[in-house]
Task: structure prediction
Amino acid sequence: MLKPDVASKMLAEFADTEWVARRSKALQVLHKEGEAWLRNSIGSWNEQHKHQKKLNFHTSRLSDRERKELFATVFPRMTNELERAWRDLGNAPYSESFEYQPFRTPGDRRATDDRRDSWFESVIGELDGYDPDAVWLAEWAGHLGNKVS
Result:
């Protein structure tokens, strides 16, 4: 097992310092607020939360084609996996909190929109700076939290 400091150094070697810049240009074409949304999805959760509410960009409001383009732009090597996870979350119980009884709302996408939007923002928060595929993610997922400030 890798020690956290060793894993952090190894992860730094995989990091792409131009990650945001490369994706920002493509997101500007996809959606006028997409670039600002991406920049606000990176960094500490408190900063994200403060700025996200000002933006009117929600992954869940995109058409299927636009959402797939977004996934392909942000994580080109995991587009299919992200799309599958997105669709699976749409079929998950509406509530994930232990305080409430989970229930399903078949056919009502709006019931899971906030949850799916939050999920994708958390994916970006964990993987920004990397261009992972599923195998890389499986190998390094246990160490990614070490980079979070």
In short: Residues 44-49 have pLDDT under 50 and may be disordered.
